Amino acid sequence: MEEIAPGIWHWTVLHPRINIDVSSYYLPAERVVIDPMTPSDGLDWFAERGPPTDVFLTNRHHYRSSAQFAERFGVTVHCVREGMHEFTGGGERVEPFDFGDELPGGIVAHAVGAICPDETALHIPTRNALALADGAVRWRSGGPLAFVPDGLMDEPARTKEGLSESYRRLAKLDFQHLLLAHGEPFVGTGREVLATFAG
To answer: Which residues form the domain of 113?
Structure first.
């Protein structure tokens, strides 16, 4: 667990299904966890610093360890309405939100789309941050922002064009830190990195 910027904690855990490290974030003041995986040391750390009240998913595939957070802390798990079909038969308790909604902690949900209808960006004004889902990744520490591999897109050229359009729009928001679900976050330079990447 590392505090990468004031009030933003980041950690990575090996995802057992896709066999790569994925990123999660905790905002103690807002009591919000984003795209959670349970850290190797368990959940006691959160109990000492919160505990969290809400979990936000940047898309439906990032439910990850949400059930463990819900069982331990009674958090409400939130996913955009376009992704709610993922949670109709597995017993998961997930509450929908809509693009444009202001969520607990003053976080605002923005549509990204292109790669999937529920691809979401979360703007966190109190922390000067923007959280992205799967469209943009950072495969190695210190590396550049990149698109997710073509093999994970139905129509790569069209998907990249749609993602770039969304990222250009999002780069007009006021933020400094870019929080990625897959890869090391960009701290302090996130808005510039996203704007340059989107072209």
So the answer is: 2-198
Q: pTM of the full predicted structure?
A: 0.95
Question: Residue 19 has what pLDDT?
Answer: 64
Domains in the chain, number: 1
| The pLDDT value given to residue 70 | 96
- Do 114 and 121 meet the contact criterion of CB atoms below 8 Å apart? no
Please list the rounded mean pLDDT of every run of 10 residues in the chain (199 residues). 96 78 95 95 91 97 94 97 90 94 97 96 98 94 93 92 98 98 96 97
> Burial of 94 by CB count in 10 Å (0-12 exposed, 13-18 middle, 19+ buried)?
buried
Q: What is the CATH number of the domain that holds 43?
A: 3.60.15.10
What is the residue-wise DSSP string for the chain? Answer: -EEEETTEEEEEEE-TTT-SEEEEEEETTTTEEES----TT-SHHHHHT----EEE-SSGGG-TTHHHHHHHH-PEEEEEGGGGGGGSSS---EEEE-TTPEEGGGEEEEE--SS-TT-EEEEEGGGTEEEE-SSEEB-STT---EEPPGGG-SSHHHHHHHHHHHHHHHTTS--SEEEESSB--B-S-HHHHHHHHH-
**pLDDT at residue 17, as a whole number:** 74
What backbone torsions phi and psi does residue 106 show, to the nearest 5 degrees? 75, 15
